TrEMBL record:
Species per Swiss-Prot/TrEMBL record: Mucilaginibacter glaciei
Broadest EC class assigned to this enzyme: ligase
GO molecular function, one term: ATP binding
UniProt protein name: UDP-N-acetylmuramoylalanine--D-glutamate ligase
HAMAP family associated with the record: MurD
GO cellular component: cytoplasm
Pathway info: Cell wall biogenesis; peptidoglycan biosynthesis
Chain residues that bind ATP: G128, S129, N130, G131, K132, T133, T134
Job description of the protein: Cell wall formation. Catalyzes the addition of glutamate to the nucleotide precursor UDP-N-acetylmuramoyl-L-alanine (UMA).
Pfam families from the UniProt entry: Mur_ligase_C, Mur_ligase_M, MurD_N
Catalytic activity field: UDP-N-acetyl-alpha-D-muramoyl-L-alanine + D-glutamate + ATP = UDP-N-acetyl-alpha-D-muramoyl-L-alanyl-D-glutamate + ADP + phosphate + H(+)
Keyword Cell cycle: yes
Keywords annotated in UniProt: ATP-binding, Cell cycle, Cell division, Cell shape, Cell wall biogenesis/degradation, Cytoplasm, Ligase, Nucleotide-binding, Peptidoglycan synthesis
Amino acid sequence: MDENKDISTNPAPSLLERAGVRLAILGAGESGVGAAYLALQKGYDVFVSDFGSIADHYKQQLQSWNVKFEENGHTEAEILSAAEVVKSPGIPDKAPIVKKLVANNIPVISEIEFAGRYTDAKMICITGSNGKTTTASLTYHILKNGGLNVGLAGNIGKSFAYQVATEKYDYYVLEISSFMLDSMYKFRADIAVLLNITPDHLDRYDYKLENYAASKFKITQNQTAADHFIYCADDAETLKVMEGKEIAAQQLPFSIEKKIETGAYLDKDNIVINATQEHFTMSINDLALQGKHNIYNSMASGIVAKVLELRNETMRESMGNFRNIEHRLESVGKISGISFINDSKATNVNSTWYALESMTTDVVLILGGVDKGNDYEMLKPLVKQKVKAIVCLGKDNKRIHEAFEDDVDVIVNTASAAEAATVAYHLAEKGDTVLLSPACASFDLFKNYEDRGRQFKEAVKEL
């Protein structure tokens, strides 16, 4: 790997300069442990600190690499002696240790920023409030099928840093959250994709949508005229920010509402991508991913593929045979003619809206968990139209009852995935869909949304 990539703007110190330099890493999850491995490989004196407990498998990795670490608290002297700190995205800037680092002028960066210094690979970076995991997975699927030497990282799969340390990819598809973007400064996306901006995680942004939107637009920072910015021309918040913003990259919008001269649009039932000289068309009926929101996701992935000059035949095949990721509108199977879908990754109202919007049958909806100040108003029209019963899965379901008591005849409380699946099964009839799309975080009853989804799938198998 060329460690002098973009030396003028993105310096990677030589091995000699790094020897013995302290790099502290806050958080020992996937990104933190991956960053530790890369830092160790590059000659840093690495110290990992987690305010909570470290999962056993990560602890074993750190021990096998002889990395110094601590859990269940921070030793400030060890952290404040660092030349630089890599912060896991889940740690807010308001955390006391982060405030002290800033006060001491110690740079705090993301794992993506750190790892980006040590690879020459082309960066395809995908962000947005909803759809980014699906779009990143689909983009990776198309590029891999097209014969490109490509890795998938960011908010998904093995950490970017670990892959940079152990692989030699020519391209990376990175799913990037706003939390990651907040700690990214010199990193540059060769192709940046912004899918949409809807209210989410506003507690991290002083409850101001404009702050969250500004964070999302950091995906375009440092881009040049040689780079590309792909965005949704139908998204009001995206367009609002763009009005007062200069973007150096070539802009490639996509829309299902209007014809786009250079980008992608919908012509009757056909996606048209005219981002390059060779146009691409495909019927939306042939897409593996169905529903309006997935037309957007497929357009964004398709534009990336065309920018990278993939063949239309490869694109058509890949967009037609893609299988969605676990916990995102994942088909669990059919019992007595009732379909079960695991959309546990829907941790906000917008994600649940997208899930409901793609349903073509009557729905028994499993909702609930830790409510992040949800406004359920936007769900009401779809609930009235498609939902015959709501099964609440959470410790406190009061707000769900209040939101939907006038729209649905049956709202039932449950306290486990098994109970929710059983109750939903009895409420559904042949031809219906039982949809787990909670619109809430999971940590009242589960470790995380993956745990919630897996428990639901197990429960369905037991029916």
